[in-house]
Amino acid sequence: MSTRLLLVEDDNGIAVPLIRTLERDGYAVERAATGADAVERVRRDDLEPPAIVLLDLGLPDMDGLDVCQRMRESGYAGGVMIVTARGGELDRVLGLDVGADDYLIKPFLLSELLARVRALLRRTHAAAAVEESAGASAESAPAPFRIDRDRRQVWVGADEVPLNTKEFDLLAGLQDGEGGVVKREQLMAEVWDENWFGSTKVLDVTMARLRQKLEAHHAPVHVVTLRGVGFRLEQGRADA
Asked: Which residues bind DNA (predicted)?
């Protein structure tokens, strides 16, 4: 069966040749022309979610960054590649922070797009294999949990938990709280910027990914949310 991709692009002049190229490379491509349609497609229980979403930012009904965030909040765990003409540093940083895995700036070579799709598929397949292996080998006794701040690595026993920069910084900030509540404002200032002017929803999205990764590797700690206040790191597995 062909790997399913979802292209979120409202411009026919861009979407049609992209779909043609991807289908020639063996992919099954669906298209959504609006952000709302894209979010609905990854949320539906009666449809297998796409392996990768190729997401434009300049959509007619909502910003693509909001689309990415809503997809992640809905539980979509596949790959997200932003494909856009917006190449500014802030857009790239925000895109990765709200859950995108890759960011490709228009105009681009079709060969580069195909190479990035293949690379993203390899990464998502590897991550899924790690989670499956972690679940199959989980034991009743918790594995040792270690945060190596020098190397910026997190370990559960012999398995490394793959965290991105923001996820690691959030975990370190929670550990510094020594079991107490760390306020949202403090985490935003420490992990993002004390003068951050955007939505703090990026904190919730990143924290949700951190929580999922800790649970997937059966870490002997878990994140507790105090709605509207902050978060704390507690001992014990979330599913215990």
From this structure: 135-235
